[in-house]
Write a structure and sequence with these properties.
It contains eight helices and no strands. The protein is mainly α. Helix 4 packs antiparallel against helix 8, helix 6 crosses helix 8 and helix 7 packs antiparallel against helix 8. The protein starts with a helix and ends with a helix.
């Protein structure tokens, strides 16, 4: 992140703190990967402390609130989708892990699948990424990447490939 942009955000601001993935988005290299890593404790906490409906509710709220968090932070930064904004990665991994039995193997596979879809951006992810802006635009590509990864996770589990 450019130091001039960095001056426009503060981890003391709760909106920026969340949008920057609890600070993980400030990693100098691969902030999206670090943002996804920051989601792992949240995935584990929710998987072990709430029901499936509770997990889905938190994931839905994180995704909807993320539109505002990411949009507000991008506006404050005066940059559309700075790589340091990683709340979308957190929501994406939460989506990826819906109704997935938690183990180190499923967490690793979910992490890899989500990152692959987020980085490669197959259609329609690439289409939306290029044409939708604002907070919704920041969130939608990762939400879709999360759903694509979720489908592959459940296919993998169904067919016993893991």
């Amino acid at each position: 992140m450019d130091r001039h942009i960095r001056k426009r955000v503060s981890l003391a601001n709760p909106v920026h703190f969340l949008a920057l993935g609890f600070g993980s988005g400030l990693a100098p290299k691969a902030p999206g990967t670090f943002g996804t890593i920051a989601a792992i404790p949240l995935v584990c906490l929710l998987a072990y402390s709430t029901s499936l409906s509770g997990y889905i509710l938190v994931t839905l709220v994180a995704s909807i609130v993320g539109i505002w968090l990411c949009g507000k932070t991008a506006k404050d930064m005066m940059v559309h989708d700075d790589s340091s904004i990683v709340w979308d990665e957190i929501a994406g991994l939460l989506i990826t892990m819906i109704a997935v039995p938690l183990s180190w193997q499923t967490l690793l596979l979910g992490f890899v699948l989500f990152r692959l879809f987020d980085i490669l951006k197959p259609w329609p992810i690439s289409y939306l990424d290029a044409r939708v802006h604002g907070g919704f635009g920041i969130m939608i590509d990762d939400v879709l990447a999360g759903f694509f990864a979720l489908i592959l996770m459940h296919l993998t589990l169904y067919f016993g490939w893991l």
